[in-house]
Design a protein that fits this description.
The chain is an alpha/beta fold. It has two domains: 129 residues, ATPase, nucleotide binding domain (Nucleotidyltransferase, domain 5, 2-Layer Sandwich); 168 residues, Nucleotidyltransferase, domain 5 (2-Layer Sandwich), CATH 3.30.420. The strands form three sheets. A five-stranded mixed beta sheet has the order 3-2-1-4-8, sandwiched between helices. Helix 1 packs parallel to helix 2, helix 3 packs across helix 9 and helix 6 packs across helix 7. The chain is globular.
């Protein structure tokens, strides 16, 4: 295994990150590119191959693990991903194998992040947990008894698309009221214009041309009352949803990952408060809210690469 690595790829709605990962979880080379720069998936595949060839890493690759929205572990296809330009069914694992001539595993991006947490991150001591990725959308990877839950068709664990508010905000999946329309980074930005508040008109957020979710949290830290309301609303919405989802798998912990989670323990504490407030009594005071400490690395890159190592180890 010396000087041989898994290529881990995390395809997101905004950017695609990839890196070469050792069995110990060390990322020895990584890069990110804007996903929208590649209208066709083959263009992205060709660009990654060209970069790794130029850097001299092609011959060090043992195999490829990919995390992608609506990635189906069983088929190797991306299927109708709402946050990607690529529409329909994309046989992505097959396309990477054809270009790289290496075994390729594709899974949902949130499942990849969960795998990264279980092998390298803040869930190494857990066999029952759910990874919640708060990014462009909201993803979730469900682990029960140390095994990823895929369901019969590979799409189990789409917590971000469980509808929490009847006839609520329009989602990219074409339905209304999905969790990710409220608790993703894009959902936080939508709250700036869609959340009613008497403090709205005096908020610094309204003076910004294109405020981001980070801006909301930063201004909340500075005491902006409307920004603080948005943070509280987001935490309450997420915490209440996680209370309901506990009934499915009774996790020992939820592990929060992504830009919103990176803001620190204060947000996680708020989520924990609202989760406890809404939990069924048999689950109260049993479920932790943890924050990933893989933020300085890419959990999905680590996780998609780990899929390759994990499967090899189990064999």
């Amino acid at each position: 295994m010396n000087d041989h690595y898994a290529l881990g790829i995390d395809i997101g709605g905004t950017s695609t990150e990839y890196g070469l990962v050792s069995q110990d979880g060390d990322i020895i080379y990584e890069k990110d590119v804007p996903t929208k720069d590649f209208p066709e998936p083959q263009q992205l595949i060709d660009a990654i191959h060209a970069d790794l060839l130029k850097e001299g890493y092609i011959d060090t690759i043992l195999g490829i693990g990919i995390g992608a929205p609506n990635g189906n572990y069983f088929t190797g296809h991306i299927e109708y991903a709402p946050n990607l330009l690529w529409k329909g069914i994309i046989p992505l694992a097959e396309m990477f194998e054809a270009k790289f001539h290496k075994p390729t595993i594709l899974t949902n991006d949130a499942n990849a992040a969960a795998m990264g947490e279980m092998i390298f991150g803040n869930a190494r001591d857990l066999k029952d947990f759910v990874s919640i990725t708060l990014g462009t959308g909201v993803g979730s990877g469900v682990v029960v008894n140390g095994e990823m839950v895929y369901g019969h068709d590979g799409f189990a664990g789409e917590y971000g698309h469980i509808r929490i508010i009847p006839n609520g905000r329009l989602c990219g999946c074409t339905r209304r009221g999905c969790l990710e329309t409220y608790c993703s980074s894009t959902g936080v930005v939508r709250s700036i214009s869609e959340l009613d508040s008497e403090n709205k008109s005096i908020s610094a957020l309204l003076q910004m041309e294109k405020p981001s979710a980070k801006d909301v949290f930063d201004w909340a830290d500075r005491g902006d009352l409307f920004a603080k309301e948005i943070v509280e609303f987001t935490a309450e919405t997420l915490g209440s949803a996680l209370a309901d989802y506990a009934c499915f798998s009774s996790p020992k912990a939820y592990v929060l990952f992504g830009g919103i989670a990176q803001h620190g323990g204060d947000f996680a504490t708020k989520v924990k408060h609202y989760m406890e407030e809404n939990l069924l009594i048999i689950f109260k005071n049993k479920i932790e809210i943890r924050v990933s400490y893989l933020h300085d690395k890419n959990a999905a890159v680590l996780g998609s690469a780990a899929q390759l190592f994990w499967n090899a180890l189990k064999k």
